[in-house]
Design goal:
CATH class of the largest domain: Mainly Beta
Strand order of the largest sheet: 4-3-6-7-1-2-5
Number of domains: 2
Helix content: 10-25%
Strand content: 35-45%
CATH architecture of the largest domain: Sandwich
Low-confidence stretches: none
Largest sheet: 7 strands, mixed
Length: 247
């Protein structure tokens, strides 16, 4: 048996992963459980169910990623999968990570924890009207951290990145190198990134806004998700701005 981990579009927004198992033997297997073992994450990244695995076949099984362990030694990780079979046996298989998914998610999640001690970013539910029919205004709010944390480190918004759904208006570029004051409200003028109905219909991450931050000496990107109400408003805006028929 061979194993790997990956992340598809459906898992990206939720931060979950895909466990991939390949039957390298001559006989079929019935998999009833698989759990990731990786020192960078707490226990609990697991799939459970029942899946038939034919010889030579690869299965992709979704699993919610457990909380990261943020600290020293992460670069020495050697992930593996504990696989349970229907006959009661268990196998431990080294897990390949050809796209560096686990390293990326570990870094993203640990930076998000660091950033949350300085600022909580959110998007207001209401979508503002732009100056033209092809623009609208997203409002990014920088709330203070939850709970007592002393004096938060200096936090700088270094960039805002576009998504498959939303792009920057060249006439009103997004802020960069902006020191975030407590309760700051930042207007982001957006326009459709594309007007291909098929691509937009399949979008999974278009309302997940990547925001670059410097928090003290640390730097990284946090992803700020639109609420369901704002997400619906953004899809309506894109449809209207692209001139699609109503209905």
């Amino acid at each position: 048996m061979a194993a790997a981990v990956d992340q598809f579009r459906d898992e990206y927004a939720a931060g979950s992963i895909v466990i991939q198992l390949t039957d390298t033997g001559a006989a079929p297997l019935t998999v009833v459980g698989a759990e990731l073992a990786d020192p960078r994450f707490a226990d609990g990244t697991a799939w459970a169910g029942s899946a038939e695995l034919a010889a030579g076949q690869t299965l992709s099984l979704p699993a919610a990623l457990a909380a990261p362990r943020c600290g020293a030694g992460a670069s020495d990780a050697a992930p593996s999968l504990r696989v349970r079979l229907a006959d009661g046996t268990e196998r431990t298989v080294a897990a390949a990570d050809p796209h560096g998914v686990l390293a990326r998610l570990h870094g993203d999640q640990c930076f998000a924890q660091e950033a949350a001690r300085a600022v909580r970013l959110r998007l207001e539910d209401a979508l503002g009207a732009g100056t033209t029919a092809r623009t609208a205004i997203l409002t990014l709010v920088a709330d203070p951290p939850a709970g007592p944390s002393g004096v938060p480190p200096r936090t700088v918004l270094t960039s805002v990145e576009g998504t498959p759904l939303l792009g920057e208006d060249p006439e009103r570029p997004w802020p960069r190198a902006l020191v975030l004051a407590p309760r700051a409200r930042i207007a982001l003028v957006v326009r459709p990134a594309r007007c291909d109905p098929h691509a937009v219909a399949e979008d999974k991450v278009g309302t997940l806004i990547p925001v670059g931050l410097e928090v003290g000496e640390a730097a990284g990107v946090v992803k700020v998700a639109a609420s369901p109400a704002l997400r619906a408003a953004l899809y309506r805006f894109v449809a209207r701005a692209c001139g699609w028929p109503a209905g």
